[in-house]
Amino acid sequence: MRRTTVLLTAMWLLSLVPSVYAEATIDQINRAIHAQGAAWRAGDNPAWQRHFLNRGGCLTCTEAPAPYDAVWEVPATRRDLPAHFDWRDYEGHDWVTPIRDQGLCAGCSAFGAVAALETQILWDEQEPALDLDLSEQHLFSCSGGDCQSGMLMSLAMIYLRQSGVPDEDCFPYQSGASGADFPCEGTCADWQNRAYRIKSWNWVYHFGDFDKIKSALLEGPLYCYITVYEDFFAYTEGVYEHTYGSGGGGHGVAIIGWDDAEQYWIGKNSWSDAWGEDGFFRIRWGQADIESYMGRMVYEPATPPDDDTADDDDDDNDDNDDNDDNDNNDNDDNDIGDDDGQANDDDDDDDDGGGCGC
Length: 358
What we know:
This protein is α+β, with helices and mostly antiparallel strands. The chain has eight helices and ten strands.
């Protein structure tokens, strides 16, 4: 009996080790923040706990430089750029959909893309009150993602252009609870009739001129890659700057605004509203490679299908209609080719880079 009690006590004490170590590291991060004069605070949250349990950590994916014809020609910088801009408060409306939680799956590429697209749709349709919730599971499962190695950012955007993404009810998110992958076949049968597509996408190259990024942001949110350092998991509030720990890989987020006075971007994350500033974050310009890969989407409003003629074959054929569009991403069309809309795994496109991660 005594031996059993001792064993149980030892097991209980061991179970406390990760939590105690996590708290100690948070203290170290806050000391580093103070020592470097940074303006943010670290604290405990579910993403931080997952990081220390080695579940749902970031991955080591990087983005390959895009060829010139995949670069969006940024228009002349607008002279009337505001000093502060936030899609959550623009023209008296909140155009940003609620924070999601990717859980234990490295599906950030899908979540970041969907976050940017949802706001783009609300803005282009001028429907800020629309209850729009698109299926990250469909985008992730059908464009070649897996929960262990994530997915390239560009694959998400290519798929959104070729096939689109249906609503959440069509393929509810399931990978977050267990970190397991779910096949594309789990999507609803009529998903193509329910899909939202983009007309085109491009990288926004700014060559160090952040006003070009701001000009692009006034058109809609940007789908963005950041390098995640250990301290970012513990971000609670303030303007993030890397102060502690090594890089853990790449991560896809949506950028929804900026502030000139404090020189930061405003980001929407997918680690639940228990992380950061109710799921959002502010990050200092030039930090965590945030300006390195920013993607811009052009939304294509849906055309309602003819009930008498719409069928799966017609919808599959519709995917090829994009070949008639003369935009900058025609060279990406071959990356998506399966009849069921699922991405090919053997892509050879030079632009198939993309941050992916937790």
